[in-house]
Amino acid sequence: MTEAYLDELRGRVRSDRRAVTAPLLTFGALVVAHVLIAAAVSAATESAMAAHLTALVYWPLAGALGLLALWRYARHVAARDGVGEGPRSYRPITIGYLVSVPLLALLFVPVLFVGVFAPLVWPAAVLYAIAVKQHTTELRTVAKVLAFTGCLGALAALSGNPWLFSGVELAGGLALLGRGLARR
């Protein structure tokens, strides 16, 4: 095998690894940040409901910021390596997200309220969209597990124990970070 061919294979492997690692780390950090922000809002207002309502604002904005960060990172890597964004570009996902979220808000679609009762479902949906666009089986599986964990979080919310609810969400965020760091 020639050295050029091996370099190309190494590049593909790194690209595949980044396609999974970067979204896991980005959305894992966003989930952990949401838990911390919700706890701070809850402590400041002494209301668990206020903490839940932060999800109505947090997840649409955090999803957009996360996708923009991933797009910028991918563009930086592509410019550094000199190969362009390629088929795994975050551009279509980011543009689709930025167009759809304001439309959902204007139409007052109940899907926005999913973030209140099952906050992990929102990042799971974004990760699933990334996985579908990029044909990443591992990220698709992680998104499904995160959505299932989010549904468990919703059941925890029904128990009336806010710490259990936050614990499930924190565990999901830390699991994303751990998986991303392990892949790195």
Molecular structure report:
The protein has 184 residues and is mainly alpha-helical. The chain has one domain (3-183). Helix content is 84%, strand content 0%. It has 7 helices and no strands. It has helices at 3-45, 48-81, 91-106, 114-117, 121-134, 137-158, 162-183. α1 runs antiparallel to α2 (48-81) and α5 runs antiparallel to α6 (137-158). The radius of gyration is 18 Å and the shape is globular. The relative contact order is 0.16. The mean pLDDT is 80.
How large, in whole angstroms, is the Cα Rg? 18 Å
Query: Helix coverage percent of residues?
Result: over 70%
Low-confidence stretches: none
* Shape call: globular
Elements, N to C (H/E): HHHHHHH
Strand content: under 5%
Whole-number total of structural domains: 1
The major sheet is characterized as: none
What's the helix count? 7
Short synopsis of the structure:
It is built from 7 helices and no strands. It is mostly helical.
Summarize this structure as a short list of keywords or feature phrases:
single chain; globular; mainly alpha; 7 helices; 184 residues
List the helices and strands and how they pair.
Elements: H1 3-45, H2 48-81, H3 91-106, H4 114-117, H5 121-134, H6 137-158, H7 162-183
